[in-house]
Design goal:
The chain is 22% helix and 24% strand. It has helices spanning 28-44, 83-86, 88-96, 134-146, 218-226, 237-240, and strands at residues 4-8, 48-52, 68-70, 75-77, 103-105, 117-120, 123-128, 150-155, 166-168, 173-176, 190-193, 205-207, 210-214, 231-234, 251-252. It is globular, with a radius of gyration of 17 Å. 45% of the residues are buried. Bound molecules: citrulline (CIR). Citrulline (CIR) binds next to loops.
Length: 253
């Protein structure tokens, strides 16, 4: 069960976040409303939401997931691969110090975004992407193994981050899209396959028995309901415009 979730309000600079989406600029007021709905949904899942203040210096800093990996045994401050985002970790370090006795760090030439890290119980999958390099992935693997976790490194072919195309629910149920549908590493799981035309819905989050998915992806929603999950749908249009999804907006502990 998750008890705490960290989110960060968005500043006005959010509309200038990094993007490859070609969906136009986000509408700030709409995004604020969508973020508030996200916070409410988390609260209805029974977690305490820690809401950090916005930081105008970092347009993408509402995507807190990329700044840290939080586990039951340790927290690791990442080294975000995008230069404009790297300084976001300073604030997160201060926040996580209040939750963990000691923090680990990805350092030096190793880069890593939290969006590239998927936890399945005691096993972590670390994507190699434009943001996460081999050095960063190996550093994280070593840290996780020190705490008794297992870790596999997964080179990505097309997805932006690992979790752009994959999510773990519970009971071996894995949501997969694109390159992960037939991936060797994930063949032992029960798969909920998200169709190519609904790929964005693969970035969903499982919070205390509920699956939160983006609104407007009917086939994906029906598949999750068919597996017996209560589904909460959230409008995510303004975050999608800057390559963000549901998992990116929080750190769940
Ligand atoms: C970025 O390019 O870094 C942001 N605009 C989006 C980050 C999304 N984060 C994630 O998938 N974990």
């Amino acid at each position: 069960m998750f008890t705490h979730v960290i989110v960060k309000k968005l500043g006005k600079s959010f509309v200038n976040g990094l993007t490859t989406a070609n969906l136009g600029k986000p509408d700030y007021d709409k995004a604020v409303k969508q973020h508030a709905a996200y916070v409410n949904a988390l609260k209805t899942c029974g977690v305490e939401v820690v809401e950090l203040e916005a930081d105008e210096c970092y347009p993408d800093s509402t995507f807190v997931e990329d700044t840290a990996i939080v586990t039951e045994k340790c927290a690791i401050i990442t080294n975000p691969g995008a230069e404009s985002r790297n300084g976001e970790i300073k604030n997160m370090e201060g926040v996580l110090e209040t939750f963990y006795e000691e923090l680990e760090h990805i350092q030096g030439s190793g880069t890593l975004d939290g969006g590239d890290v998927l936890q399945v119980n005691d096993h972590f999958y670390i994507g190699l992407s434009d943001r996460t390099n081999k050095d960063g992935a190996l550093q994280l693997k070593n840290i996780l193994e020190k705490y008794g976790y297992k870790a596999d490194i997964v080179p990505l072919k097309a997805f932006f981050h690992l979790k752009t195309g994959i999510a773990y629910l519970d009971n071996q149920n894995l949501v997969v899209a694109g390159e992960f549908v037939d991936h060797e590493l994930f063949k032992g799981f029960e798969k909920i396959v998200v169709d190519d035309d609904e790929e964005y819905a693969a970035n969903c989050i499982y919070v205390n028995g509920n699956v939160i998915i983006p609104k407007g992806f009917e086939k994906a929603k029906e598949k999750m309901i068919a597996k017996g999950y209560p589904v909460i749908e959230l409008e995510m249009s303004e975050f999608q415009k800057v390559d963000g999804g549901l998992s990116c907006l929080s750190l769940r502990m």
